[in-house]
Every structure is written in C-alpha cells, then in structure tokens.
Specification:
binds magnesium ion; binds adenosine-5'-triphosphate; 5-stranded parallel sheet; alpha/beta
C-alpha cells in the first residue's frame, strides 16, 4: 500500500512544500528506507520513528517501507520530518485510517523516542507557505503552536505526542485548535534609563536622531567615557515594533532557531551586540545549512559593534553591502540565498590604540604610525555609510557627581514615536519604513530644500569633500532632524545640524 502526506522545508527565510510518500512491500521485514536528498538528521529519522511508534503502542508493519521526500532535488535538513514520516508510514501500513483530505493538512515535528513531539525551527515561514497553498490545517508540536498561529486564517493543531495525534486523526479524541493571541508591542526588557547618563547631551541627541530615522552612528572617545553605557541604553528609546516588522523579525528568529520557546512573536526590537572575535559566518550568516547571522538577527533593530576597531577588517568590509542595500547574499552549494539585514549600526571605538588621542587631560602615547594604522582598519566606504559621527569626551567630575540627570527615556521615546508616525504617513504606499532607507530618487521626492539650505549644502559638499553618497545621507539625516522638530520643510538649521555629524576627512 502507499500513502502521501504534506510537510515543508525551510529554504532561506521561506518554505517549500515537501511531499512525504510511503510505500510498503517487497524487501526485508521491518526495514525503513528514506530517499529524496535527506541529510544525516533526516536519515536518522527512521530510528526515531521506529521507536516512537513502538513506544506509543501503535502498529509497526513487519514489511519493508520506502519513504520518498519529494521534490527530490531539494535538500532536506533537520529532524522536522519525523512526524510526517511516521504518519505517512502508518497510513501506508494501514495502522489507522485518516478522516479528512490529506491534501489539506500539513505535518511538522521532531519525535522523541517516547513518541513525544519536540519543537522545531522555521514554523512561521512554514505556516505562511501552507496558507498560500490553500492548506487548511497544520499539525505542529505544542511548543510551536503560538508561532504558527501568527498566521491568522489557518487552523493550527498543537500536538503533544504521536498517540494523541493518531487518535485525533481517526476521530477518537479531538485536539482543540490553538487560539489566536493578541500582542503588546513594547520593549519589555529595559535595563537602564537615559536619565542615568550624566552629561553627554550631544551624544544622547545623536542617539535620538539615530533611533528616529534608523541612521547609523559611530561613537569615538577615550576609555571610560560612557560609550558602552550609552549604547546599551538605546533599547529604552527605540520605537515600538509594528506588526509587519514583528513578523519579519520573527521569521528570521524562527529560521535561525533563536526564537525563545515561550515566545511566539518578537515584540521588542532586536539589540544584538556580537563580540569582535565572532566569525564572519556568525556575523553575516552562512554555513552548510545557511542560517541568518547577527546582522539579520538585528533586522529592524540595532547591531551594536563595541570596540569597532578590533573587528577584523575583512569582517567589517562584509558589512558594506548590507549597510547599503539592507540585505545580505549568502552563497551556498545550491545557489544564493538572501536574508534581510536592515539594522541600525551603532559602533563604539577609541580614537587610537591607547585611547587618549584628542583628550584634554591625558596625553596620547601612540606614535602617528600606530594611530594611522588603527584608523586604517575602518575603511572610507564604511565610514561613509555612517551618518552620525560623535565624539564622546570624558565627563567632568562636577557633572558626574551631580544629582540632576537629563531627560528620561520615556520623554525621548515619545518624540521618536511621533517622528516615526510622520515617516509612516510619508512613505504610505511604498516599501519604506524609515528615512535612512530612502533611495536617491526618494530623497529627491521627499527632501526638498529651500535656496538658502541648498547654498549651505553646496558649500559643504565642496569644502568637506563629500561623496555623492554623503550628500544624500546628509539630506536624509536632515529629514529626520526636521521630523523630530515636527517641521514639514527641511530648513537651514536642520541641514547645519546634519552636517555636524558627518565624518571629518583629513
Ligand atoms: N556619562 C556618564 N554618566 C554616568 N556614568 C558614566 C558616564 N560615563 C561613564 N560612566 C560610568 O563609567 C563606566 C564605564 O563606562 P563605559 O564602559 O561605557 O565606557 P566606554 O566609553 O565604553 O569605555 P571603553 O572605551 O574603555 O570601552 C560605566 O559603567 C558607567 O558606570
Ligand atoms: Mg566600552
């Protein structure tokens, strides 16, 4: 006898339907053969399936069973085929009869030897694909049900173990479908508040602009001046995620296996801070089974690179494409994959190896050669992609010891939320979300400036030797500064402030 049921494979951030066929008869007793480009975890599936069926007191046929995973040219990874293989096998063997149309059902899940189901990665993209294909019901491990349920118009059946599923499928015990849950988008895990930072008003201002328009920022200053502290406070002012953004980030976390098990949806903006010893693949993504890297995990959030100068130059150069296009191409044996990577880069570094170059109290002990070498690590093209260059000097003792803190995060965040709302209105009907994402065409359309501002810009471009990219970036940043001020038109003060943050080229 033969049977056919549906499952799915994750490819990049999307899923593709996989047919799991089982055929009994011929050959040695009790043998299970899996064909259709399985990896090791899939091949080992037969051992788990065999034990799970036996330990669930279900009937295992004493015949040879061949399992085919189609399409054959799509490589199958991971243990999520255990459940569909078990179901298909038992159907082919006539262990139970299934009520309903198998073409309207999809199965995923890893089996423990006991027959219990374990959660798997990539449930959200699989649920999205299932709905597109007109599948009505998906059967997933209980732990994945809330994530699958983010796709509204599909029935999600949370399954505890194989035995329960079989009883459900043959109509003996009905499992209740997972309910749809509403979500509250606010950054919940806030550790510190902006008001705890003494002084550094101009740095906080730059951070506000960065969060409001999703602009990249580089802080440079002597040791202990508060760069790391300020960057780590940024989540407290980041705008709340929208549902669309939350679904985008959740998909990435789901595929990367980084979605915490008790979370269905990412409700806080990501804040990733990989160490400078992280590998290239960990940072940008890749591997034999391509996974999104830190820059994609930071999508719609912040990628904080502390000790920026310590990152290997080659790794920083890999950031050039994502910083420009908001995506990363990861190559793999079977072709190229693209992951989204629209993040705010926040970087911090010392101005030289000893850290005191330009400090007005301590003398820098580096030779000009050492300093030049240190600066060379960060290439011009990378610096050109950073809109906000800010110096973080040491705070004077009087300020540090004073009681008065600055504005708190809630007040700053409310201005940022307003500026984001203005951007949302502006970019209605386009794929843009924040000012920093504008193409040069969009800049021409949305960043009109008056004659005086144009003159200021022209002089600056000539005197500061700004690149064409810098010119557009100055305008985008000025747009955000005007949005924060609640002004529709970009005027001279906005351009002047924007220019202040440009990198000085010696
Ligand atoms: N402006 C400030 N307000 C309050 N505390 C501060 C400030 N600046 C520094 N500190 C205190 O000093 C400590 C060191 O600051 P931080 O680690 O942020 O320095 P840094 O600039 O990152 O130095 P490094 O270049 O060595 O990495 C912080 O934990 C914080 O307690
Ligand atoms: Mg630091």
């Amino acid at each position: 006898m033969s049977s056919k049921i549906l499952s799915a494979a994750v490819v990049g951030l999307d899923a593709e339907i996989v047919e799991v066929e089982a055929d009994t008869g011929g050959g040695e007793l009790g043998i299970i053969a899996i064909v259709g480009l399985p990896d090791l975890a899939v091949s080992e599936s037969k051992e788990r399936v065999r034990s799970a069926i036996k330990n669930s007191s279900l009937f295992l046929p004493r015949v040879k069973v061949t399992i085919n995973l189609a399409p054959a040219d799509l490589k199958k990874y991971g243990p999520s085929y255990d459940l569909p293989i078990a179901v298909s096998l038992m159907l082919a063997a006539g262990s139970f009869s299934l009520l309903g149309n198998p073409e309207e059902m999809l199965f995923i899940g890893e089996l423990a030897l006991s027959g219990d189901l374990r959660a798997v990665n990539g449930t959200l993209p699989i649920a999205v694909k299932a709905r597109e294909q007109g599948i009505k019901t998906i059967y997933v491990p209980e732990g994945n049900a809330p994530e699958a349920k983010l796709v509204k118009d599909i029935e999600v059946i949370p399954v505890k173990n194989l035995k329960q599923l079989v009883r459900h499928l043959n109509g003996k015990e009905i499992i209740a479908p997972a309910p749809y849950a509403d979500f509250n988008f606010s950054n919940t895990k806030i550790l510190s508040d902006m008001s705890h930072i003494r002084g550094q008003e101009h740095v906080k201002r730059a951070m506000e602009i960065s969060a409001a328009g999703a602009h990249n920022m580089l802080m440079s200053g002597p040791p202990g001046s508060g760069k790391t502290l300020i960057a780590r406070t940024m989540p407290s002012i980041l705008p709340d995620l929208t549902l669309e953004e939350a679904l985008e980030t959740t998909k990435i976390y789901s595929v990367a296996g980084e979605l915490p098990r008790d979370t269905a949806l990412m409700t806080s903006r990501p804040f990733r801070s990989p160490h400078h010893t992280a590998s290239g693949a960990a940072l940008v993504g890749g591997g034999a089974w391509p996974r999104p890297g830190e820059i994609s995990l930071a999508h719609r959030g912040v990628l904080f690179l502390d000790e920026f100068g310590e990152f290997p130059r080659q790794i920083l150069e890999n950031l050039r494409q994502p910083l420009e296009d908001g995506i990363i191409n990861v190559s793999r044996a079977a072709g190229n994959l693209t992951f989204p990577a629209k993040f705010i880069l926040v970087a911090a570094m010392n101005p030289c190896p000893c850290g005191y170059l330009g400090d007005n109290e301590k003398i820098c002990t580096c030779s000009p050669h050492q300093t030049a070498n240190y600066k060379k690590k960060i290439s011009g093209p990378i610096l050109d992609r950073i809109d906000l260059h800010v110096e973080v000097p040491r705070v004077k003792f009087e300020k540090l010891s004073s009681e008065a803190g600055g504005e708190n995060s809630a007040a700053i965040k409310s201005r940022i939320q307003k500026a984001r709302a203005v951007q949302k209105e502006r970019f209605k009907g386009t794929a843009l979300i924040a000012n920093s994402e504008m193409s040069s065409e969009a800049v021409k359309r949305f960043c009109q400036v008056d004659g005086d501002s144009m003159m200021l810009l022209r002089n600056a471009v000539n005197q500061m030797h700004l690149s064409a990219r810098s010119y557009f970036r100055v305008l985008k940043l000025a747009r955000t500064i005007a949005d924060l001020a609640g002004e529709e038109k970009i005027s001279t003060p906005h351009i002047a402030e924007s220019l202040q943050y440009r990198a000085r080229t010696e």
